[in-house]
Amino acid sequence: MSAYEKAADEWAADERAAHERAADEQATDGPTGGGPAADPAGPTRVPLGRTTAWTTRLAFGAAGIGNLYSAVTDEDANRTLATAWDRGIRSFDTAPHYGLGLSERRLGAFLRDRPRDTYTVSTKVGRLLVPDPGATGDDLANGFAVPSAYRRVWDFGADGIRRGLEASLERLGLDRVDTVYLHDPDDHADQALREAYPALERLRAEGVVRAIGVGMNQTAIPTRFVTETDVDVVLLAGRYTLLDRSGLADLLPAAQRRGVSIVAGGVFNSGLLADPRPGATYDYAAAPPETLARALRLREICERHGVPLRAAAARFPLGHPAVAGVLLGLRSAAEATDAADMLARAIPEALWEELRREHRTPGSVPTPDRG
C-alpha cells in the first residue's frame, strides 16, 4: 500500500473516530458540541471551506521552533508546543522552509503519539529541500539559525508537489496532513495555477489531504486562486491587520462569496503591533516613521480601554465572516501562554468604536463584536 493509499484509509478511520468523539463530547457539552468553548483560543473546531478539515480559532505557527532568527533548543520547542496544547490549541502550521525541515521534525515528534483525530496539521509545498553536502555555515541569510545542509529549490510542477508532500510526511513522521498550501508562488503564479493546483486537487480527490489552498503575504494571486480554482482556504499573512486592511479590497470579499476560508497570519505585521517602538519591524523591515506613529496611536487608544494592543491585533481579523482562525508564530512557552490569554481577553465595543472615530478602523470593516 502506498503512502497516499494509507493516508486515505487513515482519513476514513479518523472520520469515524471524530464523529464518535464529537457525539460523546456533545453529550457532555464538550468542546466540539453544546456550543462554542468559552475561551476563543480553545478547541472549538471551525471548518475550512466546505471540507472536513478544521482549525482552532488560535493556530500555532511553527516557524519559530524552526529556529527563526535565533536558535531554540529541542526542549524549549517541546515545552512551547506542550503549553500551546494545554491551552487548547489544536491546529499547527509548518513548512519545509522553516529551518530547512527542523520545524516539521520537531512538530511531528510532539504530535506523533497524540490521537490523530484531535489535532490538525498544515504544511506547504513549492520548495524542495535538496541535500547540499558541500555547504558550510548557517542559513541565517534565509532567516533561520540552522546549518545550511540543504538548499531550497522552487518546484511548482505536479511531480514536485507530490515529492514535496512525501518528504514533509517523512520529516513529520505522520501518515498524513490535513491541509496543504502552495507556499509563496509570487514568481511562479502561472505554473502554480496550471500544474501545482491540479496536483493538489487530485490529492484531495484521492483522500490524501482534506483541504488545499495557497499561503502568501499578498492578495492579488490568492484572489486568482479563489476565483479561478476550487481551493478551500487561504493563509493570508499581514494583509488583514489593524495596520493593513488591503485584503478587504479583493480577497476577503471573494473568499466570502466562494465559501473559501481565510486563516489570518502575520497579524502583528512582523512585530510592530506586538510592541510598537523605534526599531520595531513592519513587514520584515524597520517600520517607517509614519507607520510607527500609527501603531503608537493604536496602542494609546487600546490602553485607554485597558486592552493590550496585541490583544486587539490578534482578535481583529476574527470579526470578518471569511476568517476561520488566527495563526500566531510561537517560539516559547511564555509566548504560547500570552497568545491564548490575548485571544481570550474581553474587548469592549467602545474600543472598536473609538478606533472607528479615529478612522483607524472604518465603519465598513467588521470587528469581532460588531458585524
From TrEMBL:
Residues 57-355 form the NADP-dependent oxidoreductase domain. Residues 1-24 have a biased composition (Basic and acidic residues). Residues 1-48 are annotated as: Disordered. This is Aldo/keto reductase. It comes from Streptomyces flavochromogenes.
